[in-house]
Amino acid sequence: MINTKLDELFQRWRTEMEKDGVSGFSEDGLMYRNGHEDQLWNDSPRKIAFLLKENNNNDGEDVRAWSGSINGYSPNGLFFNRIAAWLYGITYLKDTCYPSIADAFNSSNQMKALQELPYAYVNVKKKVGWTSCL
After folding, report:
1. How far is residue 43's CA from residue 129's CA, in Å, rounded to a whole number?
2. pLDDT of res. 56
3. Is 12 strand, coil or helix?
4. What is the DSSP letter of 129?
5. What residues does 120 pair with on adjacent strands?
6. Which pLDDT score is estimated for 58?
7. Among 9, 39, 51, 86, which residue is least crowded by beta carbons within 10 Å?
8. How many CB atoms lie within 10 A of CB 109?
9. At residue 123, what are phi and psi to the nearest 5 degrees?
10. How many CA atoms lie within 13 Å of 125's alpha carbon, on the beta-carbon side?
11. pLDDT at 57 over 70
12. CA separation for the pair 83, 74 (Å, rounded)
């Protein structure tokens, strides 16, 4: 439901950008979870969204489908390594304690966090690319 509404918005947004001669659009929102995104999001005690500046040079990619890993065993690069550690740490934070750094950076915990926990990406700048003023 949430991603469906976003898809409708993105289509209108992309159309308006294309009318202005702008190409490259970044789609974002709740990470895909085999059709269970809304239920997982609604049932989660914490709603975790990562606010990002822009989607670098990935036109046509839907970041909601990103797995965060190339090999399936560990996060790909520093970006996903940090996102996974933050996601794991925030998700499993308790009133009286928090996960250890070792647990947050454990590859198995990170992959489970990236591939199973509900979270969202939001790119502030919808036009893909590198550094620019748009």
Report:
1. 35
2. 67
3. helix
4. S
5. 30, 49
6. 65
7. 51
8. 19
9. -90, 120
10. 18
11. no
12. 12
